Structures are given as C-alpha cells and as structure tokens.
Amino acid sequence: MSSGTGTSTFVIRWINFLTMLLAVAVIGFGVWMGAHHDNCRKSLTLPVIGLGAVILVVSIIGFLGALKNNSILLWIYLILLCIILVAILVFTVLAYKEYQLQDYSTWFLKQLNNSHNWDHLKSCLVKSDDCNNLSKRYRTLKQFKSAKLSPIEAGCCRPPSECGYPAMNASFYDLSFHPISSNKDCRLYKNSKAVKCYNCDSCKAGVAQYMKTEWRVVAIFNCILFVVLSMIYFVGCCAYLCNLFLHPQFDD
C-alpha cells in the first residue's frame, strides 16, 4: 500500500473515531436533558439519545470499514451519514419555523387537545413541582407579584390575570370575587392542588410555549451538530476517494 493510501486510511479511521466521540456527546446531551426535566416533559430526550445511538452505530460501521479496508462498509457509512445530515437539517428548519410561528401548528394543537394526551400530561403536572412549590419559593405576595414565572407556572398555577381574582399568596386566590372577564378559564380555576388551572386553555398554552422553547434549544444543538458532521463527512469523502484512486483494489 502506498504512503498516500496509508495516510487516507489513517484519516478515515480517526474521523470515525471522532464521530464516535461526537455520538457519545449527543447521547450525553440527551441524558442531561432527561436529568433536568421531570417525567412530564421528556418528549425530546429519547429522540436526542436515539440520534446519538444511530450516529454511534454508523461511526462504528465506518471505523470497521476503514480498519478492514472494506469499501462496501465505507460506502454504507457515507450514505447513512448523508441521510443523517439531511434528517438533522430538515428537523432543524422545522424546529425554527415552529418557534417563529405566531400561532401553534394545527397538528400540535390537535395533539395537545387530545383528551388522552392531556389527561396524562395533567396528571404529571399535578405531581410536579411547578405549582406545588410556588408558595415555598415566594414567601410573600410582593415576591410573587414581581417574580418572572415560567410559561407553565403562569398558565397552569394561577387564574388568568384578566379574571381579576385577588391573590392572597402565591398559591391561593380569593374566588369569592366575581370575575371581570368572560374567559372560561376564570370559572375553571380552583385553589385545590389537584385542580388549579390544569383544565384551562391558558395551561395548554403554557405547555405549548414551554415545548417551543425546548425545541429551540434542540434546534441550536442540531445546528452545531450539523456543522461538525458536515465537516467530518467532507473529510471522510475526500479521504475515501483519495484511497480509492490511489489504491483501486481497496476492498476486502
């Protein structure tokens, strides 16, 4: 084997080794997301971990192809990596598009309004710390009123501001006042920990806003991943083609 062929094979092996490390980083990012979210909001964790696992398998195929000088495995590696790049690009474009929409997509609203899906999500929210710990985080009414609440806290833990219910503390409102708004959420809100505003449209909007923010984080991560994988793909293609031209019998 010529020195040029040996060099290109060496490059392919190292490129795939780096891709394996990248795959481990992607899986680690997915695990980190899971560790920082409760069971209600892990919808993006499994896809990220799954993407990392797929990249890991593809990189192993490429590494074995370079190790054994097997052109079939290397072609499979390059084709699969190209498919992954296209998939990441499509997902990222859709994620940013979804984040920039003034209104939520019809498909997303349909999933959110599905009674089975919402009942499951609502049962999770009741057990989560979003509403249950508000009174512990904000000891005084002044602290609560000046706090910047998350979309879920603002939409699910309190009645809409337009209702006009006076807040007694961070988790209790005086419902004896007649609501000044015709918003149906005003009638749905209760001070009970098991009810709150979990049946309100404002709660669904809060969950939707939270999901859009999470999608944006993943989209930014995917942009970085796309750039790195594109560089790896380009170098891998150049190295493989160099090997192919310098050593036409490059096969097992």
Please sum up the structure shown.
70% of the residues lie in helices and 2% in strands. It is mainly alpha-helical and 252 residues long. 26% of the residues are buried.
Commentary on this structure:
The protein is built from 11 helices and 2 strands. The chain has 252 residues and is mainly α. It has 2 domains: 4-105 and 215-247; 127-197, no CATH class. A two-stranded antiparallel sheet has the order 1-2. A hairpin with a 2-residue loop joins strand 1 and strand 2 (172-173). The longest helix has 46 residues, at 201-246. The radius of gyration is 26 Å and the shape is elongated. The model is unreliable at 98-102 (pLDDT under 50).
Q: Note the beta-strand portion.
A: under 5%
Number of domains: 2
Backbone structural class: mainly alpha
Listing every helix as H and every strand as E from the N terminus to the C terminus, the arrangement reads HHHHHHHHHEEHH
How much is the radius of gyration in Å?
26 Å
In which range does the helix fraction lie? over 70%
Shape: elongated
Helix tally equals: 11
Taking all residues together, what is the mean pLDDT? 80
Low-confidence stretches: 98-102
N-end to C-end Cα span:
14 Å
Summarize the topology.
Elements: H1 3-35, H2 45-67, H3 71-100, H4 106-113, H5 115-127, H6 129-132, H7 134-137, H8 141-146, H9 151-156, E1 167-169, E2 172-173, H10 185-188, H11 201-246
Helix pairs in contact: 1-2, 1-11, 2-3, 3-11
